């Protein structure tokens, strides 16, 4: 759109408008924004998705990746999150292999480079949005809006809401999904390259490749499949030049010329829509078959609005969540790693002042949609339609409209929608500049926004470098979030500061009286401090709230054992094992209970079960050796000791226990 680009000539200098230099500037800005995170730790969800995920290790067959969820659990399991992203896990596995282990730097560097590549691709995407789809005689796509596309790409590259995706390693799913999403869109644009945009003509190869790339995007992150919807909107409204206002008017007036509308009688368009629809349906069907018939199970604390009894309350809160997402795009200053567990209290009545945010959101959206569909200016229609398409369509899987999601607000879900926001913002800045007399002031405002966003990205990237900074940064944003206090407490406990950890765990339980994980961890600390009565009360309450909480049952058993309530302890251990059959630590503690009761055979059997489930369980091996030694079974103790050292050859405690046995057997040379 030449007019829009001309309105931005005082903001974007002509010296950087060459495609190479424009992309170089965007790539450089994107790297500057998030470079601080390159040497960060694995934080928050990284532990479960990477460190504790067996799918990254060489001993796990590659074929298992196609049957496991993002966290390494079997998709058929009732506890599976059902997040199916095998291609993302494959890149984690490659990182692990090439770096020789769990070294976070290599994982972070890949994320930063991916964001840089996506930001560069955005220059091409925005050139289609602002300049249209025009090709030279040689079949090369022309960028007719270099200033607009560069400004929008810079706004995208430096948007602080992207920090979670870039600085958090698990955000790679969103980055890879976005990469193939954009490639699919650009591939669909190429379907019209050699046809000169002649009516009804296209390259079927590029349409099919676009569908394939959409499927690849979905195998990286579920929302990737929505690119097929965006391609359809692009084809109908931009390529087909369908004027919705004209169609509505003719329908209302029963105009017989309606059947002669080009877009409606375009055989090529119908064929492409059939390819997109059938491809999307086929991919979704395969995804559903792999996932299984049952949806993932989420709890009320994950998404409280979805559990509200009233449909009106659910609708109001969902729309309030949308307005919060819009606010994060507009003013990304208050960012938090987790928005669940009371961070955003439910709106329960129309008298809640927050309803104003809903009204403001829909006032803006309806105005933009009307302009996008009804404007007589075809350039304006294209920009607003595609801007809204990028804003809304990739967000639909996170909207709760089709299925319940496991979060209230997720900054990672805004990675792709932010592209639509940046396009709309650039269009608005161009329109403002057109009517403003002080154009230098507009230029200063735009440069100020970019500078502040870059600075905010750098600060936020620093907060994502380690868990202590990340968790503490959330205290001021979401002070009512029990999970924030829980994570701060857990981080303090890991560092040995039990007194401070207890304070945060207690606050987490106060904010969410059913927070069983906080109760379990608090009970553990109290157990170590010999405050056994309160520890038992907390752990008993935890298993009462969640009867299948195996870890809490085991910890309750340990406390009951310390209180000399041996029968209750045995029952707690057995209950834990019933709910988690492969639980070596529980078998170990059960063995200790039997040893205290002089039930030596039962103790040995329990410890043997622990070592079968976890061959490197040093404590279980050591206890077997010591018990056999103390009961005079030196030959058996020696055999167990040698078996253990074959599995754990450098364990000094095992060497010491075996040496004692060999000394008693007068085998001084081993």
UniProtKB/TrEMBL annotation:
Keyword terms, alphabetized: Endoplasmic reticulum, Membrane, Repeat, TPR repeat, Transferase, Transmembrane, Transmembrane helix
Keyword Cell inner membrane appears in the UniProt entry: no
SUPFAM superfamilies: TPR-like
EC number: 2.4.1.109
Pathway: Protein modification; protein glycosylation
Single GO biological process annotation from the record: endoplasmic reticulum unfolded protein response
TPR repeat intervals: 482-515, 516-549, 550-583, 584-617
Domain DUF1736: 294-366
Gene Ontology MF annotations: dolichyl-phosphate-mannose-protein mannosyltransferase activity
Annotated GO CC locations: endoplasmic reticulum; membrane
Top-tier EC class: transferase
Membrane topology term: Multi-pass membrane protein
Record-annotated membrane-spanning stretches: 20-38, 112-132, 173-191, 203-219, 225-248, 269-288, 355-374, 386-407, 413-432, 441-459
Family: Belongs to the TMTC family.
Record protein name field: dolichyl-phosphate-mannose--protein mannosyltransferase
Gene responsible for this protein: TMTC4
